[in-house]
Amino acid sequence: FYGGIMIKEILPAIEEADCIIWLCPNYNDAISAKLMAVINRMTGESTSHLVG
User: Which whole-number Å values give the CA distances from 9 to 6, 35, 41, 42, in the listed order?
Assistant: First the structure.
């Protein structure tokens, strides 16, 4: 899930963005598993930039 287009295009585009607007359906007051995975990956990426 985190390879390919995610690493090469999506995460760099998110890093360059001034803001992010998440549009997603409401599943019992929770976001989808895939969107949660993206957010978790972004957290890991931002943490690695701070540490490294």
Answer: 6, 16, 14, 13
**Residue ranges of the chain whose pLDDT lies below 70:** 1-3, 45-52
Distance CA 31, CA 19 (A): 19
Measured in degrees and rounded to the nearest 5, phi and psi for residue 10 equal: -70, -55
The pTM is what? 0.51
What is the C-alpha separation between 27 and 35, in angstroms, rounded?
12
* Beta carbons of 35 and 22 less than 8 angstroms apart: yes
